[in-house]
Amino acid sequence: MQQKMGRELKKKRGEMFKKIIIYISVLVFFISNTSFADIKFWTTEVQPARMAKQEEMAKAFEAKTGIKVEVIPIEEKDLGTRATAAAAAGDLPDVIYHTLQYVLPWAEAGILDVDANNAVVKSLGKKTFAPGALNMAKKGGKIAAVPVDGWTQMVVYR
What we know:
Blueprint: H1 2-32, E1 39-43, H2 48-65, E2 69-73, H3 79-89, E3 95-96, H4 103-109, H5 114-124, H6 131-136, E4 138-139, E5 142-143
Parallel strand pairs: 1-2, 1-3
Antiparallel strand pairs: 4-5
């Protein structure tokens, strides 16, 4: 009787081991065949030459990473209402090229992922950015948006 129970227990363990191996194999298969999600990128640089350059950069990024970038032109005058509507619908893009005026209101509204943006700035190194640009994008002790470029208007007096 004990031998029979021992064989049954051994058989059940073997079956359980096979099931675990199958589950792990299936999981590894799905993980190894899963690619990163595509990226939606809103840009206010909608002029034809600038759109062409951004599309070119998106294709180069896809060739290097396998991640497709959909470049979506948004007129600057429509950006605020589009972002608010997309946030309400749960359909925000992954990246938004925007001006400083949106940083703090969008951070407060949850449109910007402050933690993710702060992590990007931290990983790139704060010293790679102009201190003024970082200070203007601060929300509490974190950087709410990643500065990408700047433009200074100047008045010259005689």
